[in-house]
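Give me structure tokens for this 362-residue protein.
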Amino acid sequence: MVDNNKLEAFIQGPVPERPIIDERREQQLIALIGRVEELERKVKVSEEYNDVLKNIILSSKDSLGNLRIDGKLLVDVTDTEALLVRKNADGGDVFIVDTTNSEIELRGQPLIYQKADDTGIVIYGYDDMVAETLEIDIDSSGNGRVEATNHLTFKSTGGNVLMVGEIVAMRLGDNAGVDSFIVYDVDFGEVASINSNGHALFADVLFTSGGGLAFAEIYAASVADELTIGGIGVANKVQVTSFDTNGVSNNMTPNHTNDHITVTKAGIYLCTVSLHVESAGGGGADNFGFSVYKNDGATEFTNTHAHRKLAGGGGDIGSASLSGIIGLAVDDTIELWCWNEDSTDNLVIDDVTMSLVMVGGT
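Here you go.
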């Protein structure tokens, strides 16, 4: 039962004094409460699943300061802007991670620094992180290098690939005979190449290191070599076997022993032949034919054809010349053949020269 007298005395009694709080501590408490309220204002957290942090949103003028993550950072989302770094006030995107298309995009003028001369950017192959790499680096002197494990291809789709600046040197590979530098046209195919043998090919015209175009020559001087004619007409032609000297040559094979020149590069050649001949003793007047053939007389080049008529009895002398532009394949052999159109009288070769010079590609 409530004692009304005591209750009334309590009500009418003196008011308890307010506890005295240190003024400095009060200010600290107010400031702390203010910081908490400010953080609550700046950071808004929305949760779609229990204990999963989905979004941290800062207002346009807020700053987080320095953020340090000790451990792994996982961005587990499929989006064209899964990770986006941009300038203030949406002033332009700088770095974008696109997990939808599995792409990373750097915009502006990205700078990549390496810590030592021998460590640059290394891009590994899809299947093998050791055997197939592309390395890009630069040394302390400013010398850049791009090196691939196998082939290095520069390609521009619908445009041009430009190399600007002074090119001091180009070092080719050591694999002999293999094209080390190739210029390719999508419409015409390979238009130029250089291999480690020092051969340069431009539009199917071959130049060799220090030697220019392919050429060769065989000749004989003052040999007085008599050729035996076994039958009448071109069907009984005989090869001129009077050559005894190999002339100058480049990327072709002159062979005076077998009286022919062997082609090592297919192409268009200028062929020239000059002869000084005599009629053999005891014969009559004869009309001799001369022509250039290939592959042991199998095929005649009819544009390299000449005739010379010599009086009989021996001692009649004359000259003949042949020239023409002919197409040749690799390993073709080029020979000079002659025949007597009137009889089986022999022919004496005093001087003879046969030359081939490449003038065009196939």
